[in-house]
Amino acid sequence: MPVDSSLVGRAYPASRPYTVTDERVRAFAEATGGTWAGGPLPATFPIVLAFDAMNDFLDAEGVALHRIVHGEQKFAYARPVAVGDTLSATLTVAGLRQIGGNDIITTSSEIVDAEGALVCTATATLVHRAPAEGEQA
Amino acid sequence: MSLEVGTVLETRTYPVTRAHLVRYAGASGDFNPIHWSERVAMSVGLPGVIAHGMFTQALAARAVASWTGDAEVVELGCKFTNPVVVPDDDEGVEVVVGGTVKKVEDGLVTIALEVTCGGTKVLGMPKAVVRA
Q1: Do B58 and A71 make contact, defined as CB atoms within 8 angstroms?
Q2: Which domain CATH number covers A81?
Q3: Nearest CA to A127 among B83, B48, B61, B29?
């Protein structure tokens, strides 16, 4: 089943608030082979928020995560993320097209702080390989 | 390192093994089984377990941080054009990140990246903009 094209423009509820801690940042930096002992956060760290929002979106639409491959990802920062920030992400479906039986879903997630001020916009293209007729989802 | 237009930045090489992917899954919350289960990966038409695109992008960001002295990143992005297939062995594969300074304007430095694995470009139009 392809993803419903009427989803374009739809915004999903904000992801649960996420507080950035030293431990989380260190674990993320070390998981990408780096180290972190204060200072600027790894530039891809906001994916943690964007991924939460994407999971909520996939759950809401009944799309299985293992059928998703990442097509494109971009971060545009309004300000750096800092330890102590409590962030949440709101995902909007920006576009949807079908190519060769796959859904190409473009999403934009606005990551805001506890005051609601924009911190980072994370734009993602998700490639959804829909199960073929009779194939197990 | 000087960041003038045309500067070619020193290539960085990073290993990627299955162990890295498991650790990254835990730290990022991305538990998509295509990054740890050969069976699931192949069931959706992939050649095998592939690295999280965001793991590869994180390596590109590490290279940028190393070149710029941890400069503030204003923009970072790429397409994921070819999968980084990670074999089930101890060696894994290597991701190589190169970069060239393309623009320096208003305190912002634009770096065009080239990210390869086994000689194949794995990211499309990877780019970073930093304040420096």
Answers
A1: no
A2: 3.10.129.10
A3: B83
